[in-house]
Design a protein that fits this description.
By secondary structure, this protein is an all-alpha fold. It has helices spanning 2-19, 25-46, 48-61, 70-98, 106-115, 117-130, 137-142, 147-151, 157-173, 176-202, 204-218, 222-254, 258-275, 278-291, 297-310, 313-329, 336-351, 359-371, 378-381, 385-410.
Length: 425
């Protein structure tokens, strides 16, 4: 699939450049090619609410028992959230320092704004309005007064996340017999949504082709593609820093050497790179952490499946960089409050992000909408998304392995786990 997407990207650029040489070319692209790109974006937006609702309810309800999770359950989730916040913060720091979108010329920026005038002006005005509201208004708006109303608009995704968490907690608190039919429904619903993502991603090469061809026609400026290169470099630098962060905290809490950790998890990282799926890599990840990192099966069987559902550090970092890059490309100046909102939204959205290829792009729709950034800006980055998806999945899997190693060393204190002390580091 990644080769097909790269081929679609290249073909879209070449088609756009070729047709831009003819007077009738731009209208041909806008009338007969651009609609397929719009359909693809709409399909991604279509499944955003169902995806996060199904994945998050399943992920929370799978925690089994709130009262008996003890140190392992609480500290596992806490550590996952902490590493995700760290990843988003690193992404925001890098994108604000490097400013990949600021290298776009004012002429190109005006072309972009002209192409997406209606949506861009609407979202920019909303972003300005948000600066004038009460500091706690964002907290108030997390709690919906009507779930159906919240689910009807992707811009209210935090409210959907809040509702999904409450449903998941409710399923944990009620008797197992009463909860089972509801959990079975959402388990099945989650599988359906994941299959829908597979179907939509089959059309990704066509969507990328249409988006890139339209982008070249609407703004055929070389500085835009240079900015895309800097954007990709910013994401990769952030992902490398996150790998270093994992190595550091593993050494800090377990005294395991960086070389030992990297060699132990390397096969799972390679599989994650090739499949772009944390879920597909899960069996190998579990084998590596139990057989080579000294994690007990009890810990691995709890931490890793939960991590594959709620721990998406690489995806969260990419969402932060992508959101600010798109805002920079459109000339939007995001306030500190808006960027703090990106941290919150990206962290919560990662909890409901499916562990399959392409799900990160769906979650990015949520982050963009919540921050008031034009969703049409997805056209800027989708062409380079697939190779970056492969890289960020490596970080997702590495984070799961790091947290399971820490939990096994710091939290689990029982005779069954004493054999961990005898495993060479």
């Amino acid at each position: 699939m990644h080769w097909k997407i790269l081929f679609g990207m290249a073909l879209g650029v070449l088609t756009g450049l070729a047709l831009s040489q003819f007077s009738w070319g731009p209208s041909l692209v806008r009338d007969w090619i651009k609609p397929f790109g719009n359909i693809f974006i709409n399909a991604l937006k279509l499944i955003a609410v169902p995806l996060i609702l199904a994945s998050l309810i399943k992920g929370v309800s799978d925690l089994k028992d709130l009262t008996n999770l003890s140190k392992m359950g609480f500290r596992t989730v806490f550590t996952f959230i902490l590493t995700t916040v760290t990843a988003v913060s690193i992404g925001l720091l890098l994108v604000n320092l490097i400013k990949p979108g600021s290298s776009i010329s004012e002429e190109t920026r005006m072309d972009l704004l002209s192409s997406y005038q209606t949506e861009a002006s609407l979202n920019i005005s909303k972003a300005e309005t948000q600066k004038e509201v009460s500091p706690l208004q964002g907290l108030v708006e997390i709690v919906p007064e009507n779930f159906l109303g919240a689910a009807a608009d992707n811009r209210n995704m935090l409210q959907v996340i809040f509702f999904a968490i409450m449903v998941g907690v409710g399923l944990i608190l009620i008797p197992g017999g009463a909860a089972k039919p509801v959990k079975d429904f959402f388990d099945g619903f989650n599988e359906v949504i994941l299959k829908m993502i597979d179907v939509i991603m089959i059309t990704a090469p066509i969507g990328v082709f249409a988006l890139l061809a339209t982008l070249v026609i609407d703004s055929p400026k070389i500085d835009l593609f240079a900015a895309l290169g800097m954007y990709g470099l910013t994401v990769i630098v952030g992902l490398i820093i996150m790998i270093g962060f994992y190595v550091f905290i593993v050494f800090l809490f377990t005294k395991r050497s960086p070389k030992s950790f990297i060699l132990g998890i390397a096969p799972a990282q390679l599989l994650a790179f090739s499949t772009s799926s944390s879920a597909a890599t899960l069996p190998v990840t579990m084998e590596r952490v139990t057989g080579h990192l000294g994690v007990s099966k009890e810990v691995a069987s709890f931490v890793l499946p939960v991590g594959a559902t709620i721990n998406m550090d690489g995806t969260s970092l990419y969402q932060a960089v992508a959101a600010v890059f798109i805002a920079q490309a459109f000339g939007m100046d995001l306030s500190l409050g808006t960027q703090l909102g990106i941290i919150l939204t990206a962290t919560l959205a990662s909890i409901g992000s499916a562990a399959v290829p392409g799900a990160g792009m769906v979650m990015l729709v949520i982050v963009l909408a919540q921050a008031g950034i034009p969703e049409a800006g997805l056209a800027l980055i989708f062409g380079v998304d697939r190779p970056l998806d492969m890289c960020r999945t490596v970080v997702n899997v590495s984070g799961d392995a790091a947290v399971s190693t820490i939990v096994a060393k710091v939290v689990v204190e029982k005779p069954a786990a004493t054999h961990l002390r005898n495993i060479p580091v």
